[in-house]
Write a structure and sequence with these properties.
single chain, alpha+beta, eight-stranded mixed beta sheet, 4 helices, 16 strands, about 20% helix, Glyas_Bleomycin-R_OHBP_Dase, lyase, VOC_core, Enzyme related to lactoylglutathione lyase, lyase activity
């Protein structure tokens, strides 16, 4: 990811909704070396921020609604959450929650694109988002899985103004040309019950070693694979069922 700080339109945060907050904290602390801190306020509902050093890098939280899936969610920074949700609906998407204020930290909403892939909107108050990107244990890439790539390009370009770097092999999303993520077209290899979704990738020092840890505790969905350009990736699933990716870029 070419972005190294939250910018309007780019990914600024990722958070896990899980059925077992304590188990998730243990798993990701072992995997990434995170230091979790749970907000003690009752109205925070157990929201836990994971740190690397002094930098906030991700969050873990219990499920707040029975219909909420166990999943990692990606938040995109917006200047005005209320205006952004209006743009989402006008572009054919759906607003699932909010906008609502989160103490003085910011204003938050959950939306879905026309194919049903959920994502979050974050209007920063006192909290701009992650304090570290692209370093081991932090967010480094965000990937959309969809069965309708043309619709996705039209939707996200309108809502966020993203630049689109498309090739025969892969389409990358960017903010003013700074790529932060990509898009995978879901073909027949994906079971029909798998919905469109966003998948965060965390940077790691060693993809194979990280995968070996997950093999003992969770599930490996895609074994470590080398891509053109030197990048090595894997897609994993934690013990509660949340999917996420890991990668290591071997070239500068």
């Amino acid at each position: 990811m070419k972005l190294d700080a939250p910018v309007t339109g780019g990914p600024c945060w990722t958070e896990l909704g899980t059925t077992d907050l304590e188990a998730a904290q243990r798993f990701y602390t072992r995997l990434f070396g995170w230091r979790p801190e749970t907000d003690p306020r009752q109205e925070a509902g157990g929201y836990t921020v994971a740190h690397l050093g002094d930098a906030a890098v991700a969050a873990l939280a219990p499920l707040y609604q029975p219909s909420q899936p166990v999943a990692w969610n990606v938040s995109f920074a917006v200047a005005d959450a209320d205006a952004a949700v209006r743009e989402v609906t006008e572009a054919g998407g759906t607003v699932l929650f909010g906008p609502t204020d989160v103490f003085d930290a910011g204003r938050f909403a959950v939306a879905a694109d026309p194919a049903g892939a959920a994502f979050q909107l974050w209007q920063a108050g006192t909290f701009p988002g992650a304090g570290l990107f692209n370093a081991p244990g932090s967010l480094g890439w965000a990937e959309l899985y969809t069965r309708d790539p043309e619709q996705a390009v039209a939707f996200y370009s309108r809502v966020f103004g993203w630049t689109v770097n498309a090739s025969e092999r892969y389409t990358q999303w960017g903010v003013d040309g700074a790529d932060f993520g990509g898009m995978v077209t879901m073909d027949d290899k994906f079971p029909p019950e798998v919905p469109a979704h966003w998948l965060p990738y965390f940077a790691v020092a060693d993809v194979d070693a990280t995968t070996a840890v997950v093999q003992a505790l969770g599930d490996v969905l895609m074994v470590p694979t080398s891509l053109p350009g030197g990048r090595r990736i894997a897609v994993l699933r934690d013990p509660q069922g949340a999917m996420f990716g890991v990668y290591r870029a071997d070239t500068p």
